[in-house]
Amino acid sequence: MADEEVKTYTGHCLCREVNFIARGLSDIWYCHCTQCQHMTGHCVAAAGARRADFSYEGNVRWSPVSAGTRSGHCASCSSYLFWDQIDRATISILAGNLDDTAGLVLKGHIFVAEKKDYFEISDGLPQYEKWPPEGTRQEG
Ligand SMILES: [Zn+2]
Ligand SMILES: [Zn+2]
Questions:
Q1: What is the Cα–Cα distance from 108 to 6, expressed in whole angstroms?
Q2: Topology, domain 3-114
Q3: If you count Cβ atoms within 10 Å of the first and of the last residue's Cβ in the chain, which end, N or C, has fewer?
Q4: How many angstroms does the Cα of residue 57 sit away from the middle of ligand 1?
């Protein structure tokens, strides 16, 4: 296959106790869901990594978010690193923790139906009430 074309991405938490690596990432989506609002105070920008192509080292504290989902935070500095829906093929990597995002593109906004009214989305990217249609998301 085209293994040599797959870029490896690295990242870390604020205090650098947690380091992660992902071989290939999907593009980045903004998520405006209620969960993300509470977890971050605003919205999330995240890319997806296939589970088999993703690993981390360091002490990650996993917290249940809702049935079947959990969030991963550095146990020392609390950086919000990962969001994991157990039955999905990919795990979400919060983009702010990546070292180098070259090659990643912002694809659009999801869960816009839950967005608060204090700001407008004006970047012209596609907006979806919930998940985008199948095939719009690139799973790595
Ligand atoms: Zn940390
Ligand atoms: Zn969300």
A1: 22
A2: 2.170.150
A3: N
A4: 11
